[in-house]
């Protein structure tokens, strides 16, 4: 088994022993808002994006979960018996371990390395959420859009991004027409090339 989690072989073996392993294709929903949380997702291959829906129906991208990482929002909800406050969707084809919440608790009590892993995830997500707040507050939509495109490129290791203007708008919490206009400007400035449901960074 490939170790993407940066944990010891002993802890990795326990995670695989206690978890259910599932494979998902890009675009599949693995957790919806208000759903019960009975297990914690740990990504071993691929990536997923975590989003939240605002009262007006707009969706805001909170952060990406890459191989070797988990979702701290699921930790919180699962440990306290709460429903999910976010939804998680597969960004690129993924293999995910689903660790039952009771095993999450027992590992916290018996394995300091697992607790350290959770703290590291909390720290990483906290910094990412601060960055997101900073972007929403101080950065213009065009800056946020080009930053999002580069993040997607880094995730997949490719300069070609497969996404519709509507999907990008949802992740930024803005209107599709705004994204389309900005992308056209970027194309005219030779920053990227537009295709059908694809964008190539130049």
From TrEMBL:
<dbReference type="InterPro" id="IPR000595">
    <property type="entry name" value="cNMP-bd_dom"/>
</dbReference>
<keyword id="KW-0805">Transcription regulation</keyword>
<dbReference type="GO" id="GO:0005829">
    <property type="term" value="C:cytosol"/>
</dbReference>
<dbReference type="InterPro" id="IPR012318">
    <property type="entry name" value="HTH_CRP"/>
</dbReference>
<dbReference type="InterPro" id="IPR018490">
    <property type="entry name" value="cNMP-bd_dom_sf"/>
</dbReference>
<dbReference type="InterPro" id="IPR036390">
    <property type="entry name" value="WH_DNA-bd_sf"/>
</dbReference>
<dbReference type="GO" id="GO:0003677">
    <property type="term" value="F:DNA binding"/>
</dbReference>
<dbReference type="InterPro" id="IPR014710">
    <property type="entry name" value="RmlC-like_jellyroll"/>
</dbReference>
<feature type="domain" description="Cyclic nucleotide-binding">
    <location>
        <begin position="6"/>
        <end position="69"/>
    </location>
</feature>
<dbReference type="Pfam" id="PF13545">
    <property type="entry name" value="HTH_Crp_2"/>
</dbReference>
<protein>
    <submittedName>
        <fullName>cAMP regulatory protein</fullName>
    </submittedName>
</protein>
<dbReference type="InterPro" id="IPR036388">
    <property type="entry name" value="WH-like_DNA-bd_sf"/>
</dbReference>
<feature type="domain" description="HTH crp-type">
    <location>
        <begin position="139"/>
        <end position="202"/>
    </location>
</feature>
<dbReference type="GO" id="GO:0003700">
    <property type="term" value="F:DNA-binding transcription factor activity"/>
</dbReference>
<dbReference type="Pfam" id="PF00027">
    <property type="entry name" value="cNMP_binding"/>
</dbReference>
<dbReference type="InterPro" id="IPR050397">
    <property type="entry name" value="Env_Response_Regulators"/>
</dbReference>
<keyword id="KW-0238">DNA-binding</keyword>
<keyword id="KW-0804">Transcription</keyword>
